[in-house]
Structures are given as structure tokens and as C-alpha cells.
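Possible regression after last week's pipeline update?

I re-ran a chain I had predicted before the update to compare outputs. Posting the input and the new output here so someone can diff against the archived version. Not blocking, just want to make sure nothing changed silently.
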Amino acid sequence: MSVVPDHDPDCIDCATNEVIDLIIDARPRPVGTVTVARVLPSPKRRLVGPFIFIDRAGPVAIAPGAPSGIGPHPHIGLSTLTYMFEGELVHRDSTGAVQVIRPGDVNLMTAGRGIVHSERPDPEWRERGGVFNAVQIWLALPLENEDDAPVFEHYPKTTLPTLVVGSGARGRLLAGSAFGLTSPLRHPARPLLVDLELDANAVLELPRDVQERGLLVIEGSVEIGRETLHRNQLAALREGVAVSVRAAEQSRVLVIGGPHLGDRLMDWNFVASTRERLERARDAWKAQTFPKIPGDDKELIPYPEHHR
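New output (post-update):
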């Protein structure tokens, strides 16, 4: 975790302080059989808009036949958004959804009052192995949507708007509206999520009409004011100010953001507005009263008692 140096709210010449609230370094965390870079939540910043959780998984080479993926586990009070750079997974959940996700695709699963899902490689992919590289994002739900019925949605790469922004910047609009385009992905928390590839020295102006914004470096390095951000660093940006990003080298970034949702509580895979909701979900998972996944109901990931 690194805070922007010499932060002084009265400093009118500190260009960096005028655009960056905080720079967050991802922390390594074991998930399944791989180690991920956990960006959010962090001790000094819980959310950016509705983005309450971001894991960067990979790139990691999975050997042919090696175990990988994550078995059945529950969620409440959030939506999981999975975006693939390389590799593939098979999503299964307790609504009956079964969906292969491939590079450029987005899977959006809204847990609402409760869902169980698994993410495992297809047997053929596991047999041949390959590179796995993805981000898993949790979007907190507005209070009025915490008890919504669970639902799963899949957005193939071809359905997501292609962006060409100025000279040397291109990518896809995954969620929200930006640069004159709107994604087909709809979510009650109104998130913004943009995947952009930048040529060296490309300059990009970020959208300003988003209450809370952040920029996550996937590959390469970029400059914002006098700060240089590197791979797996997230800059939480100040509200309403113009932000210019320059690529110090060939780079890839995710622009995130959305309206401020207020505080949320987290316990393992559960997100809620009250402690009571978390306790009910924990007890239900331990009692195995959550719904089962058709075709993947022979095992489950137990609640980690040490987590509390």
C-alpha cells in the first residue's frame, strides 16, 4: 500500500495530489491452486464506486493435467464479473447456468439473496494446459437490490463495443457509458468498466462524469501527473477533476468507477449492509441449505473458520 507522498489538501501546486487520492499496490493471495494479486479491498480503501473486490489472476502457465479452478462456493449481496484475457473457464451455478468464458468475454453473475457457483476448466483445456489470465471483480449491490433473485448473464466479446480513443488507444467498453458508447451490460449499481490498450506515449483523457473512478494497470506502466503506476497498481482518482494518462510504454489498463454506494460489510464470499445478513449466510452455508449446482454438487468449499 502506498499513499501519494506529501499529501496536503491545501497544496495548490501539487498536480498529482489534485488527481490521485491513493495508489494501491496489489497483495498476493492464494485462491484455489494459483496465487492472485488482490487489489481491492485494501486497508485504506474498501470500494471505488461499486467495485468492492478485484483479483488479478495471472498470467500463469497451467501445466497439462494440473488441477486448477475453484469448486462450489456461495455468494450474497454482490455481482461477480469475470473478464478473461487468456485461457478459459466453465462457469456453473445454482440457477442452472453453464457457460464457457473465453478471452474478451464477460460473465456477470448477480447473487442477490444467494447463489452457489463453480469455475473450472473444460476437461479438454485442462488436458492440454495453457496460460490463464483474468480479472475477477465483485460489484456491491444497492441496498434495494440485496435480496434480488439470483441471475446469470454472459456477454461474448463480439457484443461489447469496440473503442478507438484518439491516437494510440483502443479497447472495449465492458460496462457503463464512455467515449460516446454504451455497453449492453446493465447493472443496478451503474458501474463503469473499460479495457484499454495504449501504445507507448499515447495520451488518454479519462471520463469525468463518473462520481468515483480508478485506473488499474494490467500490463506496462502509465503516468498520471508526476506519478508512474506499474503492473497491478490501482490509482483511486479524485472526483470531478480532469485526468490525463500517458503510457510510458506499451500498456494495458482497466478504467473502473461508478456512483458511491456507501459502506458494505464483507465476510469471506459474502457482502451485505448488515452483520445479521452475513451471519445468516454463513450459517446457511455451514448447514448446507444454499441451493446446489446441477452437475457439480459432490463437493463444496467449507467456510473458513480462521477467516473470522
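Follow-up from reviewer: compared with the archived run. The CA atoms of residues 211 and 239 lie 6 Å apart. Marking as no regression found.
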